[in-house]
């Protein structure tokens, strides 16, 4: 069960060389896998910094069907190859139950994105594997709905769930979403599962990311997710919010 029962130990989720639920885990990487060189550049810098896990979307849930949808299996191949080259575990989003079996061959951790938090067939399919999964909070999901979505995965037998607060939709437009920072300590009280904060999609603002990163760790987040791209102005998705390499390095120096 996702909800804590009496005197239950906190769950730890191991992915390659990192363990969610102990020291903070930092997941960096581009919004989308675009090509080999883009991924190699980011992975190289990340491994120099001693990071152990990289992200990159191969199936992108975009608002418009005319926007870049991701490279699909080719994207997973590129992610896996840089992961092997630089000894980084890999995480990427799957958007449909039919992708789970194939994607499992390329990934160390699945990601379920905000738009699919209640895609119950997807949750069940992942629940039938034993692979770790990062489950992101839905755009308009309450804490209780979020935890019940995780329950679908646990209920099928997969205990390796990490939660991710990524902001919710409110009337406020100063940030892309409204980071519900209080959900972190609340969820830690309600559940034994690790929880991290996505500081990129919650804010959509590079200028406040260092402060938000620090705040997230201060409230007890088990880690952070943050997008990094070698050349954000030409990124095929989320060009305004991805950090460039220098911005990544200064964030790293502040938090890691
Ligand atoms: C992502 O992390 O690539 C993403 C699309 O985020 P979210 O599902 O939180 O919007
Ligand atoms: Mn993105």
UniProtKB/TrEMBL annotation:
Keywords per UniProt: Transferase
GO BP annotation list: aromatic amino acid family biosynthetic process; chorismate metabolic process
GO MF annotations in UniProt: aldehyde-lyase activity; chorismate mutase activity; transferase activity
Statement: the UniProt record of this protein carries the keyword Transferase: yes
Record's keyword annotation contains Glycosyltransferase: no
Name under which the protein is recorded: 3-deoxy-D-arabinoheptulosonate-7-phosphate synthase
Whole sequence portion shown: 101 to 356 of 356
């Amino acid at each position: 069960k996702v909800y804590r029962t009496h005197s239950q130990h906190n769950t730890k989720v191991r992915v390659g060389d990192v363990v969610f639920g102990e020291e903070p885990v930092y997941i960096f990487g581009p919004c989308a896998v675009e090509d080999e060189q883009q991924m190699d550049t980011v992975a190289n810098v990340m491994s120099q910094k001693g990071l152990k896990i990289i992200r990159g979307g191969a199936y992108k849930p975009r608002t418009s069907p005319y926007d870049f949808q991701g490279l699909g299996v080719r994207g997973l191949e590129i992610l896996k190859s840089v992961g092997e080259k630089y000894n980084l575990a890999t995480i990427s989003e799957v958007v449909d139950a039919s992708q789970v079996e194939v994607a499992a061959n390329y990934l160390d951790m699945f990601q379920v994105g905000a738009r699919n938090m209640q895609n119950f067939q997807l949750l069940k399919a992942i629940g039938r594997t034993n692979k770790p999964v990062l489950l992101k909070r839905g755009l308009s999901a309450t804490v209780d709905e979020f935890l019940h979505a995780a329950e679908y995965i646990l209920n099928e037998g997969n205990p390796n769930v990490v939660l991710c607060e990524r902001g919710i939709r409110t009337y406020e437009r100063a940030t892309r979403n409204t980071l519900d920072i209080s959900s972190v300590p609340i969820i830690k009280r309600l559940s034994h599962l690790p929880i991290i904060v996505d500081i990129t999609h919650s804010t959509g603002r590079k200028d406040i990311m260092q402060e938000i990163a620090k705040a997230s760790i201060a409230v007890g987040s088990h880690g952070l997710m943050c997008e990094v791209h070698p050349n954000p102005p030409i990124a095929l998705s989320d060009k305004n919010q991805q950090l460039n390499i220098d911005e990544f390095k200064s964030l790293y120096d502040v938090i890691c």
